[in-house]
Input
Amino acid sequence: MHQLLDMDKKIVLPLLFGFFILSVGFIYPAYAIEKPDIIVSHTEIDFGDVVVGESSSESFFSIANLNGPETVTLNFSISLDDATNFTIASNSCGASLLPGESCVVGLIFTPISDGAKHSSVAILSDDHETSVILIDLFGTGISDNAVDSDGDGVPDVDDVCEGFDDTVDTDSDGIPDGCDIEVVPLSCGGGTIQQGNECVVDPALTQQVSNLEDTLEEKNQEITTLNGIIDALEQTIADLTAQLEDALQIIADLEDGMPWNNNNANENASPGPIGKKP
Output
């Protein structure tokens, strides 16, 4: 890129034959004027193997306008050659970028059939050196039967015990040893776990059991706390019942001590209901 002299100090006048002449006498070719400079982060993206009908994780590339005066805008467009297996999933780009600005485009691969797939993204811009940039896209569609995550020869779609060798079944019960809680793994010598003995079948399974034990312990503590609350409530009810019985006894004693309740009924007659004459 070529940088002109400070524009606030020089006067630029257009001249024929593609040259500019400055007031101080220097001559610059016309192509020296700053133009946008596009930068793209990737030239290819490989999505690897993806099961037919499923989608890959999203892969991204970025576009940036690297150079140019503040007023020089990079104009561009994005097109996808094959939208059958590859898709633009996200796009923060518009149609232009100012100097220093960038944007991101996300792609996913969803094969519709087995086999290797190829496509490309074309970025057309007014960059003065590279007006067309291609990003090659690769991916391979595979069937469910071709996926064997644990390498035991059993496809994931038929794998009874993922992460373990399904072909090892010491007690021939149809459950691979890696998922059979009744069989000790080979690291423990094989055979059946006898009562009172223990052996680690799988660290992940052991962690799950440990987590369940912790959860059970927490629930037991919660139950203990609730039982304590229930006991406290029962005691409170018992105390209130006793207080109520005491209050009723006091009322009964007061009634027994009233003058109309003694032996001399004539002298201490009950006043009767208020407002009525005898």
